[in-house]
Structure formats: structure tokens, C-alpha cells
């Protein structure tokens, strides 16, 4: 960690938050579809492709949050040596420091971790069918985004869905090929973005009877 000089970043946190939410929407609208197109070269079924991408999102957020926790401990121990304020102000200083020094995050390590985890996932095709490194660009973008979201107060996160759960119109949109009369979620296409328990951006699911 660099010498103690926490930047005054919190003033722009509202605009930073808006940019991160916009980035999440852009990944959903563009880069997700590009990843789908790439996977369709190796896998015929759209459902399998969409399940792969959903798990990639979940695993990317998990890996990034774990990496953030480790970086935060390191930064907090260092800044505490020269911090002369309340514990709450130290917490803010740590988050601002990490937000302004994104190179503290080894995103390549997280990408490798996500791909290895997906290769071991029994719900996904075996590694011989497709190498998930083909969507490493999407995973990298998701990891970087998820890491940055942890610097907000409160942090932004994704809602973890379970196949078979009741459809919640406040949290999800139905995919175009859904059975619109079905009350249960068959599988998830994209997770909802939440902030302190409140849905900020709806996710997408497929509902079927």
C-alpha cells in the first residue's frame, strides 16, 4: 500500500455509483449478448448458454468480493498507523483509498479463479466441451465492476436466485420465451442488482410450468 494520503473521493460517490449502475446495464445489454454469441459456437442450447453466463456473473461477484475483503484488510492496517479520527472515518478513508487505487486488485487472479470454479461446476458442460476462457473478457469486466461496487456505502451487490423460486415481478423481468402464466422460475438469465436489500436494477428469468 502507498504512503498514507487518503484522497477525497466520497464527494463524487453519487456520480460514481451512477456510473457503476450504468456499467452493469451496459454489460447486460451488450457484452452479455456477445458472450452468448461466442458460446453458441460450441453449445447449441440457448438455455445452457444462459445458465453458463448467469453462473459466470455469480462467481465473478463472489471472487471479487473475496479479493476486496483481502485488499481492505491490508489497506486498513496500513492507514490505521497514520489515521487520527473515529473508526467510522477510517472505514471511509479505506474505501476511498481502494476506489482511487484500483491497481491494488489483481483481477487476473479472480478471472482464473472463476474459470476454474466453473470448470468444476457439475451443472455446466465439462471442460472438454467448451473452455470457459472464451468468455474471460466478460468475466474480467464483471470482476472489476463488482470490486468497484464494494467501495460504495452501502455497497452494490447481486441477488442470488434459486431455480424453482416463485417469480417476483419486483425483482425480475420475464424473458421473451417464458410462459407468462407460470408462477415459478425455471432458470435465471441475469441477476438483479440490489443495494441494502432494495432492488436497483431488475434481473431476467425464464418462467415455465
TrEMBL record:
GO terms for biological process: mitochondrial protein catabolic process; mitophagy by internal vacuole formation. The keyword tRNA processing does not apply. Keywords: Coiled coil, Cytoplasm, Lipid-binding, Membrane, Mitochondrion, Mitochondrion outer membrane. It is found in: Cytoplasm; Mitochondrion matrix; Mitochondrion outer membrane. Transmembrane segments: none annotated. Residues 17-207 form the Mitochondria-eating protein C-terminal domain. The keyword Mitochondrion applies. One of its GO terms (cellular component) is mitochondrial matrix. It comes from the Eukaryota. InterPro entries: MIEAP, MIEAP_C. Its main location: cytoplasm. GO terms for molecular function: lipid binding. Belongs to the MIEAP family. This is Mitochondria-eating protein. The gene is Spata18.
Amino acid at each position: 500500500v502507498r504512503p498514507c494520503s487518503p484522497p477525497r473521493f466520497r464527494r463524487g460517490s453519487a456520480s460514481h455509483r451512477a456510473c457503476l449502475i450504468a456499467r452493469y446495464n451496459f454489460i447486460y445489454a451488450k457484452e452479455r449478448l456477445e458472450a452468448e454469441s461466442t458460446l453458441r459456437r460450441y453449445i447449441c442450447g440457448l438455455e445452457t448458454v444462459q445458465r453458463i453466463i448467469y453462473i459466470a456473473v455469480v462467481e465473478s461477484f463472489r471472487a471479487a468480493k473475496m479479493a476486496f475483503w483481502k485488499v481492505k484488510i491490508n489497506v486498513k492496517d496500513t492507514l490505521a498507523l497514520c489515521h487520527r479520527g473515529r473508526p467510522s472515518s477510517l472505514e471511509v478513508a479505506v474505501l476511498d483509498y481502494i476506489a482511487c487505487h484500483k491497481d491494488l486488485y489483481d483481477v487476473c487472479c479472480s478471472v482464473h479463479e472463476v474459470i476454474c470454479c466453473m470448470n468444476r461446476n457439475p451443472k455446466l458442460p465439462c471442460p472438454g466441451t467448451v473452455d470457459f476462457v472464451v468468455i474471460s473478457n466478460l468475466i474480467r469486466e464483471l470482476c472489476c465492476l463488482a470490486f468497484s461496487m464494494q467501495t460504495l456505502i452501502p455497497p452494490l451487490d447481486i441477488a442470488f436466485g434459486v431455480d424453482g423460486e416463485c417469480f417476483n415481478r419486483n425483482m425480475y423481468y420475464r424473458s421473451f420465451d417464458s410462459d407468462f402464466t407460470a408462477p415459478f422460475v425455471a432458470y435465471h438469465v441475469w441477476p438483479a442488482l440490489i443495494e441494502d436489500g432494495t432492488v436497483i436494477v431488475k434481473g431476467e428469468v425464464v418462467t415455465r410450468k
